[in-house]
Structure formats: C-alpha cells, structure tokens
Specification:
With 207 residues, this protein is α/β, with parallel strands linked by helices. The protein has 9 helices and 8 strands. The strands form 2 sheets. The protein has a 5-stranded parallel sheet with strand order 2-3-1-4-8, with helices on both faces. A 3-stranded antiparallel sheet has the order 6-5-7. It binds adenosine monophosphate.
C-alpha cells in the first residue's frame, strides 16, 4: 500500500504515521525528519538547507525529489510506504507520479487554531524523532523521551515566526494538492482535530 499523508504542519501526520507504519508493516518516510537528520549531522545538504528550514520555507524541488526517488528504491519500500511531508507542491506530486503509483492520499483536516495549539506544545526527540506534546502527550520525565531516553526539544521551525510562514506556504503551495488527488479519486479525509486515538481509529476503519 503506497500512502501519502497530506496536511498542514502540526496536523498529526508524523504522530499517526508512527502508529500506522508498524500497523501496516510499511516504512514511515518523513522528508522533514531526513532533512533534520542531515542538519544534525552537519552534512553538506544539512548546511545548505538549515536557514531555509528554520525560517519556515521549503527545500528546493530537485533536491527533495531526488532524495525521495532514491529512498523509494530501497528494499523496505517495495511493499509500500507512508510518505509524510512529500509531495509538498504540484511539481513534486507530478514527479512522484513518474516513479511510483500512489494508492491513497490521507488528507488531515484541521483549522489554523488547531494547528497552532498542536505546534505550540510540540516537542521532538533529538534521537528517535518521536513527537511529544506538553499537554496532549507529555513524556513521563520532562524533556526526556520515554521511548529511547533521548533529549526532547523544540524544533527551530516550531517557533512562532516560522509557524506563521509554514502555514502560509501550506495554504498557498501544498493545499492545491487536495484537489489534485481528489481529481484522481484517491483522496480520503480524516478529521484530525482530536487526540491521536480517534485519529488512529478512523485510520483503521479505512484500512
Ligand atoms: P516537516 O517535518 O514535514 O514539517 O518538514 C519540516 C521542514 O522540512 C519543512 O518546513 C520544509 O522546510 C522541509 N521539507 C520537508 N518536506 C519537504 C518537501 N517535500 N519539500 C520541501 N521542503 C520540505
């Protein structure tokens, strides 16, 4: 099953993918997580993209498309995948059509207030990338990941100024993908305002 998770930042794509990927036994591929790893490791790619990501902008299409097309050739993606955060614009969506066939696109429905509440409390594990939330899903010990003991931190692009820019970018260049995939007849909508349990339950009703 080849799936795309589409929705604004903070809609819960990464959190649901963390549950849905083991449930369907397919890999969770997050372009944002791959970029954050490159930044943390100080690779050439990481150095080139850091300022742009921190400011809430998008990484350029050729870099992102090459990364995903290569990632999808790995063995674990042969039986399917969840793409979380890709495609992010129409150029990427059309490129994806040339190297893979998407079966379903899950559109995470949430308004800007819901997004702001999620992002204001979001914390991410530096080691395993798990998403925590200080109100909705806090780690047992403050700032320490329950899963791996890693440090839990606030993403630079979750700070107020960047969030505003990311939402603008989403509405302008990513949201048109909803119509693109609806036109192909493969779009499914999930109400993602509540906690993760009802969202996962809704997901399981689809699959
Ligand atoms: P995310 O973790 O999906 O919120 O992504 C974090 C940041 O990584 C985004 O705000 C972008 O700067 C960058 N990014 C992630 N995925 C893409 C993509 N498909 N195209 C361009 N930039 C991306």
């Amino acid at each position: 099953m080849n799936l795309v998770f589409l929705g604004p930042p903070g809609a819960g794509k990464g959190t649901l993918a963390g549950l849905a990927a083991p449930y369907l036994n397919i890999p969770h591929i997050s372009t944002g997580a791959i970029f954050r790893k490159a930044i943390a490791a100080g690779t050439q790619l990481g150095i080139r993209i850091k300022a742009n990501i921190d400011a809430g902008g998008l990484v350029d299409d050729p870099t992102t498309i090459k990364l995903v097309s290569e990632r999808l050739t790995l063995d674990d993606a042969k039986k399917g995948y969840i793409l979380d955060g890709f495609p992010r614009d129409i150029v990427q969506a059309k490129a994806l059509d040339t190297f893979s066939k998407v079966d379903k696109v899950i559109d995470f429905d949430i308004d800007d207030d819901g997004v702001l509440a999620r992002l204001a409390g979001r914390r991410v594990c530096r080691k395993c990338g798990f998403n925590w939330h200080i109100t909705f899903n806090p780690p047992k010990i403050a700032n320490i990941c329950d899963k791996c003991g890693g440090e839990v931190y606030i993403r630079d692009d979750d700070k107020k100024e960047s969030v505003k820019k990311r939402l603008e970018v989403y509405r302008k260049v990513t949201a048109p993908l909803i119509a693109y995939y609806r036109g192909k007849g493969i779009l499914v909508n999930i109400d993602s305002r509540g906690g993760i349990e009802p969202i996962f339950a809704a997901f399981k009703r689809i699959f």
